[in-house]
Automatic annotation (TrEMBL), chains A, B:
Domain of life assignment: Bacteria
Subcellular location(s) of the protein: Cell membrane; Membrane
A family per Pfam: MgtE
InterPro entries listed in its UniProt record: CBS_dom (IPR000644), CBS_dom_sf (IPR046342), Mg_transptr_MgtE_intracell_dom (IPR006668), MgtE_N_sf (IPR038076), MgtE_transporter (IPR006669), SLC41_membr_dom (IPR006667), SLC41_membr_dom_sf (IPR036739)
Protein name in the entry: Magnesium transporter MgtE
UniProtKB keywords: CBS domain, Cell membrane, Magnesium, Membrane, Metal-binding, Transmembrane, Transmembrane helix, Transport
Transmembrane segments: 280-300, 312-336, 356-376, 382-406, 418-441
PANTHER family given in the database record: MAGNESIUM TRANSPORTER MGTE
Record text on subunit structure and interactions: Homodimer.
Originating species: Saccharopolyspora taberi
Membrane topology: Multi-pass membrane protein
Gene behind the chain: mgtE
Length: 443, 443
C-alpha cells in the first residue's frame, strides 16, 4: 500500500526512490500522503518535489499542513509559494496561523497580493468573505455574447473561475449572473442581459459561510456571487470551497455529537496528548454530570436493598434509554444541519417522537418482560417492562427536543445531542425505574 | 416563516395565494417545501406551478418526492415530465421505484430516451454508471481550440456539462480531458492535445459511486470522465451528483452510528411507524445484547450483596466507558469515511488509542476517586478510580479497532461503531469493575 511503500523509502532514506514515488502520483494523492506524516517528514518530502509541481501540491494541502511545510522552507522558496497562492487560500492559511508566521507571510508579498489578502482577512471569521475569491471577471451590462467572451479572454487568466460570470452595472452592482456555457452556445450578437438568470441567489460577504455553502449545494450552483452591503460584487464563492466547508462542518458536528472537541488536523497526525485534549473536557463534564445517577441511587438505596434483583437491570435500562435518546437526537441534529427541520418544528417533532418512543417502548417491553421473567421473577419483569416503555418515550422526546431548543437559543445543536441527552436520560430514567418499582412491588 | 405561511394558505385552501407564493420562490426553495409535505399536498402544490417552472422544480426534488408527484399526474403531464428529465436523474428515479411505476415511466418514453435509461439501469446499484450522465460532448484528438469550440456549440445543447470535455481517439477511448476554460482562453489555433491535462483521474462505470464522489472532492474536479472496461468514454459524473452522493453517504453513516436503519426520505415526511421501523431493529438487538450485563451482574450478585455501595456507581462507570468508546469509534469511522485512515492502520491506531485511554482514564480517575470518597468511603473510591482507568483504556481500544476490523472483513464500519461498541464495553466493563472490587475490597 502507498503508505507502506513510502514508509520503507523513508526508513531507508532512499531519496531517489522518494522522488520517483512523488513524481508518479497525482498532486492530490501527494498532498494526502503528506498530511498523514509528521511535520518534519512532510517538509522533507515537499522539498523533494519538482519545482513545477510544488505549487499544485501545496494548494491541495490543508492550511495546517501548509503552515508546517512553509515553516521548513527558506525565504525565497517561502515567498515564491506564498505569492503564487490564490488569495482566498492565503487568507485561510493566515486566518489559522500564529502572528509571527502571518507577519512573515505578509512581509514578502507584492503590494497587490497583500492588499487582496488584507481585504479578505477584514471579514469576520467563518463568514463568506473569508472563503470567497476576489478574482472575478465582472461583465458590464449591454455587452453582446461575443463581446463578453472577449472580456473573458482578456481578463480571465487570473480568475478563480470563468464559468459563472457576474453581470454588473456601472457601479459594479450585481444585476445577475451568466454562465460561460450560455455565452459559448448562444449566437454571438445575443445581448448578455437576455442570457442572465433572473433572481440569482447571492450572498453578502458577512453572511455565515456554512449556510452559503449549503445553499449552493441545494441550488446546484458552481459559484455564488458575493456582494458587499451596497450590493457591489466583491467575489465569488466556488463549489470546491463550499464542498470543503460542508465536509468540515459535518466532521465538526459528528465530533461534537460524540462528546469530542473538533480536532482540525488529520486524524493520523494527531499526537496522543492532542487526541486526549479533544476528548477530556467532555468526559470530565459527563462524569461529573453522572454523579446525578449516584445521588439518585443513594436516594433509592433502601428500595435497592429490599429487592436486590432491581440492580441487575440498571445497565440494561440505562443503555436502552441512552440508545433511544441517541437515535432521536442524532436524527434531529442531522435534519437540522441539512435543513429538513427548523426550530419552529419543535412541538410537532416532540409529539411525533413521543409516539415513536411509545411504539418502540411497547415492542421492547415484550423483550424486557421475557428477560425479567426468565432470569428473576414476574413482578420484577413487569417493573422492567413498564420502565422500558416510559423511559423510551421520555428519551425520544428529550433526544429530539433538546437540539431544536438549543438551536433556538443560539447554541450549536450538535453540542446538546447524544452525550448530554444520554446522561440526562440516565438519571431521570433511574428515577422512573425506582418509582415504578415502588408502585409495582410495594416497597 | 415559510412553512407557516404555506400552512395557512393550505388550511384556507387559498389557491390564488398558493400560486403567488410558488411563483415568488426559487425552484430549489419550492422543491424543499414540497419535500416537507405529505404526498397528497405535494401533488396539489406541484400542479399549481406554472408549466415552464414545473420541470425545473421537478428536477430539484428527491427521487422519493418525484415518485409521489408523478403518481398524482395524468398521463400527458406524466410523460412530458419523464421525457424531459435528464437520463441520469431518470435512472435514479426508476432505480428506487416499484415495478409497476417503472413500467409506466418506460412505456411513455421515446426510443432514444428509453435506450439511454435502460443502459444506465444496466449498471449495478451504487455504481458510478447509475449516477453518471451519458450526454457528453467528446472531442476528437487532432482538433484545434477553435474547432473544438465549434464542436461544443454544435453538440453542447443537450450535454449535462460542457465545462469538462473528454478527449477521445477514433475508437472513443479516453485520452484525457480539456476544460472549456482552457479552450476559451487559448489562441484559436492551439492544438487541443496541448491543452489536455495529463493523467486525468477517471472512473470505470462499475466502480463504487461514493468512492468516485470522494475522489472528485479530493481532486477538486467539476466532472469525472467515466469509461467502460475497454476505456471508452460512456459518461461524466458531475459535481452536483457527487455532492449529493456524499451528503447521502454521510447521512447514512450518521444514522448507522446511532443504531438507526437509514431512512431515505425527508425527516419531516416520515410517519410514526416509518421512524419506529428504522430504529426498532437495532434497539431490539441492543436490548438482547444487554442481557449480557444482566448475566454479568448475576454472576457477581454475591459481591453486590456484600458491598451494596458498588451498585451506586454502575451507571457512572457504564456511562463513562460508553462515552470513551463512542468518542474513539466515531472518530475512527469518520476518519475512514474521509480517507484519513486505512484498514492497515489498525495496530497503530489501537496502540495510540490505548495510550489516549490511559491518559484520559487517569484524569477521570481523580474525579472518580473524589466522588467515591465524598459519597461513600475510600476503599470503594479506589475501586471506582481503578475501574475508570482500565475501562477507559479498554473502551478506547475497542472503539477505534472495531470499525477498522469491520471494514477489513467487508462490513460497513458505521454499523459496528458507537452502539455496538458501547454495549460490548458495558458488559466487559462490569466484569472489570467487579474483579477489581474483589481484589481491592477482598470480597
Amino acid at each position: 500500500m502507498a503508505t507502506d511503500v513510502l514508509r520503507e523509502l523513508l526508513d531507508r532514506n532512499d531519496v531517489a526512490g522518494m522522488q520517483r514515488w512523488l513524481a508518479e502520483r497525482q498532486p492530490y494523492e501527494v498532498a494526502d500522503e503528506l498530511g498523514r506524516q509528521d511535520p518534519i517528514t512532510a517538509v522533507l518530502l515537499f522539498r523533494l518535489l519538482d519545482k513545477d509541481r510544488a505549487l499544485t501540491v501545496f494548494e491541495e494541502l490543508d492550511p495546517v499542513d501548509q503552515q508546517h511545510v512553509l515553516s521548513g522552507l527558506r525565504d525565497q522558496a517561502f515567498h515564491d509559494l506564498v505569492e503564487a497562492m490564490d488569495p482566498d487560500d492565503r487568507a485561510r492559511l493566515l486566518g489559522e496561523a500564529p502572528a509571527k508566521f502571518a507577519q512573515r507571510v505578509l512581509a514578502g508579498l507584492s503590494l497587490r497580493e497583500r492588499q487582496m489578502t488584507a481585504d479578505l482577512l477584514g471579514y469576520p471569521e467563518g463568514s463568506v468573505g473569508r472563503y470567497m475569491s476576489p478574482e472575478v471577471v465582472p461583465l458590464r451590462q449591454g455587452l453582446t455574447a461575443s463581446q463578453a467572451l472577449g472580456s473573458v479572454r482578456a481578463k480571465g487568466a487570473d480568475a478563480e473561475t470563468v464559468y459563472t460570470l457576474p453581470v454588473v452595472d456601472d457601479h459594479r452592482r450585481l444585476q445577475g449572473v451568466v454562465t460561460l456555457r450560455r455565452l459559448v452556445l448562444s449566437p454571438p450578437d445575443r445581448q448578455v442581459t437576455e442570457l442572465v438568470t433572473a433572481d440569482t441567489p447571492h450572498a453578502y460577504a458577512t453572511d455565515d459561510a456554512e449556510s452559503a455553502a449549503r445553499l449552493m449545494q441545494q441550488a446546484n450552483l458552481l459559484a455564488l456571487p458575493v456582494v458587499d452591503s451596497e450590493n457591489r460584487v466583491v467575489g465569488l464563492l466556488t463549489i470546491d470551497d463550499a464542498v470543503e466547508l460542508i465536509e468540515a462542518a459535518d466532521t465538526e458536528d459528528i465530533a461534537r455529537q460524540s462528546a469530542t472537541t473538533p480536532w482540525p488536523g488529520h486524524y493520523m497526525a494527531a499526537s496522543v496528548t492532542q487526541l486526549a485534549r479533544s476528548r477530556v473536557v467532555w468526559l470530565l463534564l459527563l462524569i461529573v454530570a453522572a454523579t446525578l445517577t449516584v445521588n439518585v441511587l443513594q436516594i433509592f438505596e433502601t428500595t435497592l436493598a429490599e429487592v436486590t434483583a432491581l440492580a441487575l437491570f440498571i445497565p440494561l435500562l440505562v443503555g436502552t434509554g441512552g440508545n433511544a435518546g441517541s437515535q432521536a437526537a442524532t436524527a434531529a441534529v442531522r435534519a437540522l444541519a441539512v435543513g429538513e427541520v427548523r426550530t419552529g418544528d419543535v412541538l410537532r417533532v416532540a409529539w411525533r417522537e413521543c409516539r415513536v418512543g411509545l411504539l418502540l417502548g411497547a415492542m421492547l417491553a415484550v423483550v424486557g418482560l421475557l428477560i425479567g421473567a426468565l432470569l428473576v421473577d414476574f413482578p420484577v419483569a413487569v417493573t422492567v417492562a413498564l420502565s422500558v416503555v416510559v423511559i423510551c418515550s421520555w428519551a425520544a422526546v428529550v433526544g429530539a427536543a433538546m437540539p431544536l431548543l438549543a438551536k433556538r437559543i443560539g447554541i450549536d445543536p450538535a453540542v446538546v445531542s447524544a452525550p448530554l441527552v444520554t446522561t440526562l436520560v440516565d438519571a431521570t430514567g433511574l428515577i422512573i425505574y425506582f418509582l415504578i418499582a415502588r408502585a409495582v412491588l410495594g416497597v
